[in-house]
């Protein structure tokens, strides 16, 4: 596998973020990060055009690129085939060979394109460089347009795929993703929002939306408690765009967990989207001990 530059990306339901890395002695140095909004409900051509524009911008004149992308499940990570169809996003990418699509539009060889699970990438990055350092058993939860979950059990990392797990009167993602807030705002505030950020834009809206965050924190505590009772984690790490509003639900979450009998440390990722980049890079380099400068 020959390359001069590494691009590590994180693809979500509303964006794509890509970091550019280069070798620096025995380490791999982070050069820059770029993020653009991408509506995952758009057409195939529009989604791929946005992705490819960013890849080309970061690749520059270099034609020896290694590209790693963190992608939500269900997905054939080895072959690069998207099988997402029941989560309200990327419907127009269903069944596509994304390795071929990307390679044909960029100076990147198909064999130099790798896909990894986004939840696993998040937790691998956090375990190596973030809040999970030194922990043997971790639960990672990414809260965004969808719900991502991953476990570290000793040396093994895996996508827990709990988004569709039965929970309350539906599935977990019904209560812990952006759509829950969208529905709450429509029902209780008679406003239309596209994301949680809109509930935090001014004090008046924050005040009106506090009941939503209290209910969300209770739901999240119940969800965490179910799996901590089963696996007895050392720590739970939260990431994703919804955690940017953690000042509205974190304290209530800890109190709800305590009521449930769970007093494990719950941390908000300080690396932010960098955790996914580091996890992607470690995964595609096929080592958990890659050295980074960050």
From TrEMBL:
It comes from the Bacteria. InterPro entries: ATPase_NBD, ROK. Transmembrane segments: none annotated. This is ROK family member transcriptional repressor. Belongs to the ROK (NagC/XylR) family. CDD domains: ASKHA_ATPase_ROK (cd23763). It comes from Indibacter alkaliphilus (strain CCUG 57479 / KCTC 22604 / LW1). Pfam families: ROK.
């Amino acid at each position: 596998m020959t390359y001069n530059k590494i691009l590590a990306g994180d693809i979500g339901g509303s964006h794509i973020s890509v970091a550019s890395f280069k070798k620096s002695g025995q380490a791999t140095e982070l050069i820059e990060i770029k993020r653009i909004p991408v509506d995952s409900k758009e057409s195939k051509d529009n989604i791929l055009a946005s992705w490819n524009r960013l890849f080309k911008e970061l690749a520059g004149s270099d034609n020896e690129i290694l590209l790693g992308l963190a992608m939500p499940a269900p997905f054939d990570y080895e072959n690069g085939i998207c099988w997402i169809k029941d989560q309200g996003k990327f419907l127009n990418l269903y069944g596509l060979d994304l390795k071929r699509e990307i390679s044909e539009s960029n100076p990147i060889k198909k064999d130099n394109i790798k896909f990894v699970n986004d939840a696993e990438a998040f937790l691998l990055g956090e375990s190596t460089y973030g809040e999970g350092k030194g922990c043997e058993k971790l639960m990672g939860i990414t809260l965004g347009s969808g719900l991502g979950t991953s476990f570290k059990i000793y040396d093994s990392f895996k996508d827990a795929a709990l988004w569709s797990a039965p929970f309350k009167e539906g599935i977990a993602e019904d209560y812990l993703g952006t759509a829950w807030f969208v529905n709450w705002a429509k029902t209780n505030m008679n406003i239309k929002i596209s994301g949680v950020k809109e509930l935090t834009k001014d004090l008046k809206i924050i005040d009106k939306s506090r009941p939503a965050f209290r209910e969300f924190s209770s739901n999240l505590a119940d969800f965490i408690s179910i799996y901590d009772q089963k696996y007895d984690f050392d720590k739970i790490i939260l990431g994703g765009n919804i955690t940017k509003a953690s000042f509205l639900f974190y304290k209530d979450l800890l109190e709800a967990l305590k009521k449930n009998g769970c007093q494990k440390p719950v941390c908000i990722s300080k690396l932010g989207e960098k955790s996914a980049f580091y996890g992607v890079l470690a995964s595609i380099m096929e080592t958990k001990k890659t050295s980074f400068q960050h």
